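tokens incoming
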């Protein structure tokens, strides 16, 4: 039920409405300049019949490896939360595909289990340089070098992200981020329930791996779902954004205090609209419905508060 509310808010914001089925394909590419693999989940409109699909984390309904059924459609670049995967948000991607969008879901090496358990490195969460370069490389690969290129309207690009992914899409749109500012907040000012400060940073000599890279593309709209690292963004850098931005945040947050993250960003981005979830929704309500007994820093990933219907 909560997903229907979120979908309505997002679709009203990005304004596109056609009825198709959802096609789906998984691609594995590599950025050779960084010797870095990237997984892309692509959802797109098709006329072929959907069937139940097991993503691993959850189940959905798609026409796997179907033919795309539309020309010159808008693109949504999607960025997952810390240590997650793009397919963990299939509820949203499938619906967007049915509404005639092509969704590019990017999964990040070091964070995502799609690359295998041995690839996991929790310190990679802090490397927004890696994250944003992955997003930019994936976007350019699909728009310019993939079989989907001729079906895409490259003048209509939006970006959606959750948690660290919400921060990442703000970054590629040019929001100024200071890793030092975030470190200072976590050392001196953070409230006790801010789990975002508990991820390990590790030791890194290459500062560029922490510093985000802006996209060369122009985004028509940005949607950040309960975005993370709010205190790492500079006030002046947020005020300079002129892109219509939707911030959706959980007010009674069990992971990222609304005041310091979603609320902070929504109040400082020039063209931001804020939707507050006030009914006990936690930080993970934005993911697919799931039943895995996983906890992230003590917070259940798949179980919501009693009154919340994900």
């Amino acid at each position: 039920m909560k997903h229907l509310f979120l979908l309505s808010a997002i679709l009203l914001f990005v304004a596109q409405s056609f009825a198709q089925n959802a096609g789906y394909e998984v691609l594995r590419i590599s950025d050779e300049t960084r010797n870095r693999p990237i997984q892309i989940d692509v959802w797109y409109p098709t006329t072929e019949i959907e069937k139940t699909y097991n993503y691993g984390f959850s189940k959905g309904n798609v026409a796997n490896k179907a033919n795309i059924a539309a020309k010159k459609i808008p693109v949504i670049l999607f960025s997952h939360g810390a240590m997650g995967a793009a397919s963990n948000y299939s509820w949203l991607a499938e619906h967007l595909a049915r509404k005639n969008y092509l969704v590019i879901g990017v999964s990040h090496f070091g964070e995502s289990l799609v690359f295998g358990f041995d690839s996991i490195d929790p310190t990679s969460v802090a490397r927004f340089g890696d994250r944003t370069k992955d997003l930019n490389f994936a976007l350019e690969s699909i728009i310019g070098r993939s079989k989907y290129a001729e079906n895409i309207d490259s003048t209509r690009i939006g970006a959606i992200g959750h948690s660290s992914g919400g921060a990442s899409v703000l970054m590629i749109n040019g929001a100024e981020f200071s890793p030092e500012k975030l470190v200072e907040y976590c050392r001196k000012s953070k409230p006790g329930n801010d789990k975002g400060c508990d991820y390990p940073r590790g030791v890194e000599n290459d500062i560029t791996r922490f510093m985000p890279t802006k996209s060369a593309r122009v985004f028509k709209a940005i949607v950040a779902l309960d975005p993370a690292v709010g205190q790492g963004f500079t006030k002046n850098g947020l005020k300079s954004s002129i892109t219509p931005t939707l911030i959706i945040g959980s007010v009674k947050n069990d992971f990222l205090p609304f005041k310091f993250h979603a609320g902070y960003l929504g109040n400082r981005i020039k063209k931001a609209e804020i939707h507050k979830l006030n009914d006990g929704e936690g930080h993970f309500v934005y993911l697919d419905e799931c039943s895995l007994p996983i906890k992230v820093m003590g917070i259940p990933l798949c179980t919501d508060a009693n009154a919340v219907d994900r």
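note: Residues 27 and 40 are 5 Å apart (CA to CA).
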